[in-house]
Amino acid sequence: MDDGRNDIELDALYRDTVLDHFRSPRGHKTLDRIDLTRDGYNPVCGDRITMSVKLSDNAVEDVAVNCKGCVISVASASMLAELLPGKSREEALRLADAFKRMMHGHPPPPGLDIGDLDALDGVKNFPVRVKCALLAWMTLIDALEEAEKKGDAPDRSTTTE
Amino acid sequence: MDDGRNDIELDALYRDTVLDHFRSPRGHKTLDRIDLTRDGYNPVCGDRITMSVKLSDNAVEDVAVNCKGCVISVASASMLAELLPGKSREEALRLADAFKRMMHGHPPPPGLDIGDLDALDGVKNFPVRVKCALLAWMTLIDALEEAEKKGDAPDRSTTTE
Amino acid sequence: MSTTTTVPVRTATPIPPKREIASTREDFPILKRMIHGSPIVYLDSAATTQKPEAVINALVDYYHQTNANVHRGLYALAAQATDKYEGARAKVAKFIGAAETEEIVFTRNTTESINLVAQSWGSRNLKSGDEILVSEMEHHSNLVPWFLLAKRTGAVVRHIPILDDGTLDLSKWNERFTNRARLVALTHVSNVLGTINPIAEIAERVHKHGALLLVDGAQGVPHMPVNVATLGADFVAFSAHKMLGPTGVGVLWGRRELLESMDPFLGGGDMIRTVSMTDATWNDSPWKFEAGTPNIADVIGFGAAIDYLESIGMNEVRRHEIELTEYALEKMHAVDELEIHGPADSLVRAGVISFNHSDIHPHDLSTYLDRKGVAIRAGHHCAQPLMERLGQNATARASFYIYNNREDIDTLIDALQSAGRFFGRR
Amino acid sequence: MSTTTTVPVRTATPIPPKREIASTREDFPILKRMIHGSPIVYLDSAATTQKPEAVINALVDYYHQTNANVHRGLYALAAQATDKYEGARAKVAKFIGAAETEEIVFTRNTTESINLVAQSWGSRNLKSGDEILVSEMEHHSNLVPWFLLAKRTGAVVRHIPILDDGTLDLSKWNERFTNRARLVALTHVSNVLGTINPIAEIAERVHKHGALLLVDGAQGVPHMPVNVATLGADFVAFSAHKMLGPTGVGVLWGRRELLESMDPFLGGGDMIRTVSMTDATWNDSPWKFEAGTPNIADVIGFGAAIDYLESIGMNEVRRHEIELTEYALEKMHAVDELEIHGPADSLVRAGVISFNHSDIHPHDLSTYLDRKGVAIRAGHHCAQPLMERLGQNATARASFYIYNNREDIDTLIDALQSAGRFFGRR
Ligand SMILES: Cc1ncc(COP(=O)(O)O)c(C=O)c1O
Ligand SMILES: Cc1ncc(COP(=O)(O)O)c(C=O)c1O
């Protein structure tokens, strides 16, 4: 039976890897210590994310994410949860930056391990969905920058608009 | 030399009678007694009129008008000043009503003496100028109605808009 | 290009011939467009409708023949532009059964019409502690202006909740409508649920207590016969762009005595009578509320939209929508994965169907459908409190207008089923 | 009708070929119209300009190809409409040299832009006794909003008088600009006198005292190169319809930090971030100020007008107007009966010439000229205080734009002379 797949760009948006992350999102867990926490919200579509980070030294030891939203935002959050543990603050930000640039059509720098993120490469052909893919990453950036500013930031949530 | 007259409708707007009233407006005078007075203003063009009426019994004994404005508004005010003395209140209002209807294309009732007003008949082809022709007459109507209401009307000026 | 010899007082627009609703599609050039290789199936008319050639031509004709500023010029073009602009006001007045042409105020959109009332009526008439009653199904445009007004005046916004079937919970009326209520601001038709609210019945309750009723007519006036003489409202707001007209035109209808008693809205040219170096006096309404150069061309284009709708007849528009809605509801109920919001009876609902798919987020659904040429909306539809009530972050929404037909709905259903297979694949 | 395979982030508009100003006339379909048997000579561009076919076509194309509501839809049409709408914002920003696209707020017209500042900035920043300084040559749209604000806040409106030559009497500056002054609201170019005010010099005086400067750019931006980065203003307001664009679109440019610090203007859809049943949070500027469905088509049409103006070049637009104004002033000075208002030097004045005829009221003049096809304006030009100062109830006004030429002025002069004979006959 026809499974609805006859459109190359659509297939490239919803790759099996992406659907797999959506169906079994990584990072749904409870951390034994939370150093950073932040909410993200995409007001255009109502997608919401909560993110908690456990730090050790200057590195992300573990991440918990819970994203309620579309395939793209959930998959992207799941990939983030899979990729991040063990990365230094700088590596995490470099990754976020590379992913942002990917969404605007620029390939990631050679040598950077982007894990499953390349499965989201097809999003760049759907500009209105780029915000979905970025929700988790913008939330991460804000969380890390807030930590830098040592918690005196009043704004505890990220919106993508 | 060409006197600019080669347009039938324009000639019918600016008849010699009309220009004559404009150049030597009647009603520029001081009344020995003033029973009603009212200002009129056409905010679109800035034309202004002041009108004073001397009443005896229920009739207009005399009228003084001073109109600063275009040919049409000045001529119309002058014709009013010429026609009105001696008319009863009802006759004056009937005249005003007939003139208003003339401006919208309806001929005056047969038998009604409208003096020089028929020279303003051409205004009806220039709808944007109808307000000019009506300024004096609207002011008169308001003055007479105000008198009826015995001076407790707070609004002492007429605008045509 | 014709020679003008006289300036007509009112430009006589030729009445278009009576249109059969089944033949209207060909009047809409955009419907011939292909999207991603498929013919477009436009199911987002609740957001904005498409425009018939007659409306587009009215704009072109205006700019080709008559363009000039209105109300002030004495030359032929200016007089003709003014006649056409004011002529469109008369058409709107007649279309909604207003007692007088002067009861029609032109704004940018429904949103501005509601803000106008909030500012010009509200700031003058509301005191601290006074109450404004809204409903849980309102569009943001009928909520935020009242929140802003409440902040300025100390008034309080209360709301009528809705029942699970998507209708107002009028059993809460007595509790929520206290003797401090001064205004009820209610949508005629929900842009999410399709619910048609019982305006006449509510108007009676409101007026019994001397309060006023503002009706958000954005989804009502375009879709069914609305006569303000019998509706019972004191103000009605709606948008041209949701009823075949151009973008940039809204209407506020208000009872004459209310409009006259209200403060001006924005200050500037055209809304004044006299201005000195320290003060000003106001023009009569509706012009008192129309500051600056109006959106002349689009108001005239809106007049053409009304001519077009009248050539079909609003009863026919409504009949067509009931028929399509019934057909769509039946087909959609047959798709197991769909949860459909709003009333089940198509006689008390308009042609707006919001739904959720058990396995597919509205966004993914919308992206998928778009690839098949089907345009639906996904999101909160500017009704976040209602989303909260429905327990959804977002819904998908299909909405219909005169140019939609059964084939559009068949295509929608096919695409929904194909989406199920696409996202359900392992 | 083309098949869309991808949704481009920014629709690339083809840059129109460079236009020679002498050949622009043919781009304006309305100029082929006959009025009362004569070719139209349109001399009322200060009221509103005519539109080139490129702008009209942009509207038609939008409604034929792309019409959808913006900012919310995920389907192809909605994405394309959003790109075009936001693309027009970027064009406007570039056209006036704004630091960021987000500094451009779309409104209905100049009037609304000024009211927006009066409400959103004024209500928050003015206290009783604070002062707003305007000038004696302001348009009502730059007076009445301040009167209304003064009434709400207890602030005081003061004004700078003008000299007999039609320029600002800056010798009165120190007397009128006190240390309570918070805002100066001044026109760039007088719509009656044509005076170009020395904005940079005034900006310096204003900012030295920590006040803000709002420039009414309605007659400035359309007629000369204006760069907000060097102009010195904090806010600039202007209208699309006075610069070849459609009716229904205005612009407010404001410095980003000012816009961000301001309260919202109207409440509703699109200007919010979140809404609950009791409160709301705001979107970023400029969207915070654009409530409800915007005038999408006309904003896009305005983008086409800017492309068109840029294809000529604003330096060239200004050069052409100086040349025409010089020619007209010379010819008009030769007609004994004419009194010409405003500065004599065409380098400090724009293409707006107000005048009075010693024997003919402006209304009669306008009616007469119209019969010869010549459209001029007669009246107070929404500047009653200035009329008072000039000692006139009304003036006649001829104003020029790119499509006017020397023959237009020759026709005007001939008609003025013929009018003298017509009204002077015995
Ligand atoms: C100097 C000036 N300011 C403001 C305006 C008002 O412009 P709009 O009517 O487009 O709001 C005008 C135009 O009439 C003007 O000439
Ligand atoms: C019920 C309702 N009210 C108000 C609005 C706002 O209309 P507009 O955006 O034209 O101001 C809409 C349209 O989105 C609506 O559906």
Any overview of this molecule?
The complex is a heterotetramer, with 2 copies of chain A (161 residues) and 2 copies of chain C (426 residues). With 161 residues, chain A is an alpha+beta fold. In chain A, 38% of the residues lie in helices and 19% in strands. In chain A, helix 3 (71-83) packs across helix 5. The radius of gyration of chain A is 15 Å and the shape is globular. Chain C has a 7-stranded mixed beta sheet with strand order 4-10-9-8-7-5-6, with helices on both faces. In chain C, strands 13-14-17-16 form a 4-stranded antiparallel beta sheet, with helices on one face. In chain C, strands 1-2 form a two-stranded antiparallel sheet. In chain C, helix 1 (53-66) packs antiparallel against helix 9 (296-312). Chain C contains 13 helices and 17 strands. Helices cover 37% and strands 16% of the residues of chain C. Chains in contact: A-C, A-D, B-C, B-D, C-D. The complex binds pyridoxal-5'-phosphate (2 copies).
